[in-house]
Q: What sequence folds into this?
């Protein structure tokens, strides 16, 4: 998960942190396989990226955020990423 500071304010970041805390741990590795980090050089407030797919959001949408790097949300608008 990337978020753009200024477009994703403290409440937004707190929601993303809650998504991370509630994400399942990998059964194989025993860790959460997700990163939440700021990224200045993007147009949207939030970008979820996994396995070459991206989903952009203006605000956190818990139903659209992938729960693991092995899957992406079917309800989300997905585009093939040019940077992954």
A:
């Amino acid at each position: 998960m990337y978020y753009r500071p200024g477009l994703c304010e403290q409440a937004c970041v707190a929601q993303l942190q809650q998504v991370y805390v509630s994400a399942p741990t990998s059964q194989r590795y025993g860790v959460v396989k997700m990163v939440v980090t700021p990224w200045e050089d993007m147009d949207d407030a939030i970008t979820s990226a996994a396995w070459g797919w991206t989903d952009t959001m203006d605000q956190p949408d818990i139903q659209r955020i992938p729960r693991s790097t092995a899957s992406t949300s079917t309800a989300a608008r997905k585009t093939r990423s040019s940077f992954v």
Observations:
- The chain has one domain: 2-80.
- Residues 2-80 form one domain.
- The beta strands are 2-3, 37-38, 46-50, 53-57, 79-80.
- Residues 67-84 have pLDDT under 50 and may be disordered.
